[in-house]
Amino acid sequence: MTFDEDRAVFALSSAGRQFSVDASTKLTSWWPRIQPHLPGVSSRALLVDPAPETVDMLVPHTAGASDTRRSLNAGLHRLHLGHDTLCVHAGALRRPDGDGAALLLGGHGAGKTLVTAALALREWRVLAGDVALVDVAASGQASVRGGTGAFLARRGPLRRWFPDIGVGDGADTGKVDLRSRFAHETPVVPCAVSVVAVVDVDGDPRTGDGTVGLLDQHTAATQWLRSSAHLLDRVMEDEDAVLREVEDAAAIRHRLALVRSLATAMPVHTVRGVPRTIAEHIDALAGGERPS
Question: Which end of the chain is more exposed for a tag (fewer CB within 10 A), N or C?
Fold first, then answer.
């Protein structure tokens, strides 16, 4: 096997599972900004493989840093799916007593990061900032085995809801990575999920105690299906590659079977309100309390 002198084969590990990629040698310099957005991948997980027998993924030759990250994530989606693990668009945290995890679902802008911050302030420990690796047992029970280290939030909402955190001048409306502010851990063994919640931060502080509901099984399955396709639903900036093609028909059917299993076994709650109130409800749900 021969490769371009500007390319190399790299070996990386995600949650203990090995993955090889043929990519630009620039990946080495890009790694510090790419790695936090790859689920289950530690900062020391990139190695040049001098004698590869096979390659799991070929990154397009002209891909820049952002498209390389998207390609790697699509490959990791495929890798983990083969082990009955979904890459779910979700925040994940372990309870302060270590007994169980919460999985926070929701679309872009729903407020997952704000609720993650609110739970972290209640001494929950962050397991995944944006994408969680969720093991699905034969029984349909879920466990978190890791996730992305990046924990990004917009400064404006953070200043509004958590003025004591300190995220810079009011004129700055960009994003801040909260990794340095809250404890983050990688589970030694997968952490069983005790509560799954679709969160929706309501911008009206008069929301009061918020609301808690329960999704029906079909809607829950649809939520899981959408959330578990997150790493494939990306548009490449400079490439024509379609990341959805990483999944063939058999892989899609397998993911759908895992999703149906989760929807059957795991109640999925909806929790709406302000971040701290949502966190209080999730804390109660994780402790075994059920909404009236």
Answer: C
Whether the CB-CB separation of 136 and 88 falls below 8 Å is answered with: no
- Say if pTM beats, i.e. exceeds, 0.85: yes
Q: Are residues 146 and 23 in the same domain?
A: no
Residue 292, domain member (yes or no) = no
HSE-up of 265 (CA within 13 Å, CB side)? 17
β-strand 7-14 against 47-48: which pairing, if any?
Answer: antiparallel
121: CATH: 3.40.50
Instruction: Say yes or no: 142 and 272 in one domain.
Output: yes
> How buried is 97 (Cβ within 10 angstroms: 0-12 exposed, 13-18 middle, 19+ buried)?
exposed
Helix (H, G, I), strand (E, B), or coil: what is residue 1? coil
CA atoms of 287 and 157, how far apart (whole Å): 28
Which amino acid belongs to residue 271? Answer: V
In a domain, 272, yes or no: yes
Length of the chain, please? Answer: 292
Please tell me the chain's helix, strand, coil percentages from 3-state DSSP, rounded to the nearest 5.
30, 25, 40
Instruction: Say if residues 92 and 103 touch (Cβ distance below 8 Å).
Output: yes
Q: How far apart (Å, rounded) are the C-alpha atoms in residues 180 and 92?
A: 17
Buried b (16+ CB within 10 A) or exposed e, 201-225: bbeeeeeeebbbeebeeeebbebbb
Alpha carbons 225 and 86: distance in angstroms, whole number: 10
Domain membership of residue 28 (yes or no) is yes
Cβ of 237: how many Cβ atoms within 10 Å? 11
Give the Cα separation of 267 and 54 in Å (integer). 41
Q: Please tell me the predicted confidence (pLDDT) of residue 185.
A: 86
Please list, in sequence order, all residues whose beta carbon lies within 8 angstroms of the beta carbon of residue 282, skipping any fewer than 6 positions away: 102, 104, 115, 119, 195, 197, 199, 271
At 29-86, the pLDDT tens digits run 999 999 999 999 987 778 887 777 789 999 987 899 999 999 999 999 999 999 999 9
